[in-house]
Amino acid sequence: MLDVALDYAAGGAAVIPLHSPTDAGCSCRGRDCRNIGKHPRTLAGKDDATTDPETIARWWGMWPDANIGIRPTPGLVVVDIDPRNGGDVQFDAMQQRYGQLPRTRTARTGSGGGHLWFRLCGDLRGQLAPGIDIKTSAGYVVAPPSLHASGGVYTWTDAGPIAPAPEFLAALLVRPARAAAPSNGRVTPAVVEGLVRVVREASPGERNRRLYWAAARAHEKGIDPTPLIEAAIDAGLPQREAERTVDSAANAPGGAHR
Ligand SMILES: [Zn+2]
After folding, report:
1. Which end of the chain has less neighbouring CB within 10 Å, N or C?
2. Cβ partners under 8 Å of residue 44, min gap 6
3. pLDDT tens across 198-239, in order?
4. At 157, phi and psi to the nearest 5?
């Protein structure tokens, strides 16, 4: 295990020592361990992942049979197919619908699943489908030749280069950037702030009219009018009057009118 871990590190992959399956269950000796042979042995877990050969030699000196975890470097993702949760069926369906994934570095997991490595950046979803998780630099994967609780061994079925994620995979995984401008009817803090400003900056002559207008907009969009009442009070309107104006704006037939 030490030699392999050092090999990974030499290739740029940050590794961590994981617990191992034992005859009694898990090397953590937790009676109810629910993650046998898959959780880190070190305190900071994935945050301890390193490519430093001395640290790695020390770890596997202490725990020669520790399973090996790899924390993907940013820009790499692992598509983790778990057949026990239907991931293989989902994966086949996805390939039929969108096309074959390209050849890429692939491991067969100890439970008969698959780890497919791809190059892909961005804010990614954690799951592609039920039974197909996505592992990024925010996590880690169990790597060959780690041992699985079932007795199976993780093995590379393709130790070749890591392919760029095809476009359809990127489209499925990358979260869209949040829209900066509110679309009509969507409530954003900027919308609320804008309405509040309209009321707060009103001169005494236009306070009531502005409050009415803002309250009607707030009502249309389902925004809580309390900040508007507060802004009107700030602008010098008595509380009762502000509340009455907001009520009448909310109750106006047909919504907002000038
Ligand atoms: Zn354990």
Report:
1. C
2. none
3. 998 888 888 899 999 999 888 888 888 888 998 998 888 888
4. -100, -20
Distance 30 CA to ligand 1 centre (A): 6
**72: nearest Cα among 138, 126, 9:** 138
Residues 106 and 204 in one domain: no
Distance 110 CA to ligand 1 centre (A): 16
Label residues 110-149 b or e (16+ Cβ within 10 Å = b): beebbbbbbebeeebeeebbebbbbbbeebbbbbbebbbb
Strand partners, 68: 17, 143
Omega cis (within 30) before 145 = yes
Q: In terms of Cα–Cα distance, which of 222, 197, 220 is closest to 210?
A: 197
Beta strand pairing status for 67-71 and 132-135?
Answer: unpaired
Q: CA 85 to CA 130: how far, in whole Å?
A: 7
Query: How far apart, in Å, do the first and last CA atoms of the chain sit?
Result: 76
CA 81 – ligand 1 centroid, Å: 22
64 alpha carbon to ligand 1 midpoint, in Å? 16
Say how many Å lie between the CA of residue 36 and the centre of ligand 1: 5
> Is 179 part of any domain?
no
Point out the domain boundary residue: 122, 142, 173. 173
Identify the bridge partners of residue 67 per DSSP, sorted by sequence position: 18
136-185 tens-digit pLDDT: 999 999 999 999 999 999 999 999 999 999 999 998 998 876 544 444 55
